[in-house]
Specification:
Elements lengths: L5 E3 L2 E3 L3 E4 L6 H11 L3 E5 L23 E5 L6 H18 L6 E4 L12 H13 L3 E6 L3 H9 L4 E4 L13 H12 L8 E3 L5 H10 L3 E4 L1 H4 L4 H21 L24
Parallel strand pairs: 3-4, 3-10, 4-5, 6-7, 7-8, 9-10
Antiparallel strand pairs: 1-2
Length: 273
């Protein structure tokens, strides 16, 4: 079964795995892990100090712009004003590169440096300003269903609830809230994209997110921080496929007691003397 693409704003995306570029030991390892993941969309923090490594090499030298669609993000921003400024900087940068990614942004407005939880007020404020400025805005948020609904109503192209705190590797801590978000945001609008973002630690976390019904998963640390990033990148790619197919295959119901795989009627028994 071929997995169909998803549409986010004006973008059609073939791969449902979105991968970040931070925390890799080297740019070469990042490049190879991205290739192994099979992703199409690569997120890039566009603040100037993150674009160049200690040797003066640009991250863009290791990203094939013919292969990947860049998704600039506002990682590290703690106010709506800073996030809007960073988004516009990203658009300017990608326009200069001739990248299609200039038209969209992954919005992050964080509340504090310890938890890295999203600031809901700042996120909503920045979303409205960026939407008015012509961006397709993908909004990172908590797993609060009410906030997710507010972001969609304000014009988000995609809502991206966190599975758990950024970089924590705890997986999807509250699948029930994610289910509620999916139900509410897709009610009457089944193609609206909901992407689980943050906290993914391993392939099973990705599969769970997809089995719940998410349209995709965005991750970074789960691959970059693995002992073998290349193997984990491939595992994440396969997990997207497994979770997508399982969600549509229809799992068997959970039962308290056993149910035999083979019928018990007519079982040949031992002769009794």
């Amino acid at each position: 079964m071929d997995i169909p693409p998803i549409t986010i704003g004006s973008f059609e995306i073939a791969s449902r795995l979105f991968v970040g570029t931070g925390k890799y030991a080297t740019y070469e390892l990042m490049r190879d892990a991205l290739a192994e993941s099979g992703c199409q969309v690569v997120t890039v923090a566009v603040r100037r100090e993150r674009m160049v490594d200690p040797d003066g090499r640009s991250i863009l030298d290791f990203l094939d712009l013919d292969r990947y669609t860049l998704l600039p993000n506002t990682a590290g921003c703690f106010s709506a004003e800073d996030a809007v400024r960073t988004a516009r900087l990203g658009r300017e940068l990608l326009e200069g590169l001739g990248s299609a990614g200039a038209g969209w942004v992954k919005l992050e407005v964080l509340g504090d440096k310890k938890t890295l939880l999203p600031d809901p007020v700042g996120t909503l404020e920045a979303l409205k300003e960026l939407k008015a400025d012509g961006f397709d805005v993908l909004c990172y948020t908590s797993d609060d269903p009410i906030m997710a609904q507010r972001l969609k109503e304000a014009g988000a192209a995609s809502v991206m609830p966190a599975g758990s705190p950024i970089g924590s590797g705890q997986g999807v801590l509250n699948p029930w809230n994610i289910r509620i978000i999916l139900e509410q945001l897709k009610d009457g609008d089944p193609d609206f994209p909901v992407i689980v973002d943050a906290g993914v630690g391993t392939a099973s976390d990705v599969t769970i997110a997809m089995e719940i019904g998410a349209d995709g998963v965005l991750l970074n640390t789960g691959i970059a921080g693995a002992d073998d990033p290349l193997a984990m990148a491939r595992a994440m790619r396969l997990a997207i496929e497994a979770g997508y197919l399982a969600a549509r295959a229809g799992r068997i119901p959970r039962k308290l007691y056993a149910t035999a795989s083979s019928p018990l009627d007519g079982v040949i028994g031992a002769e009794r003397s």
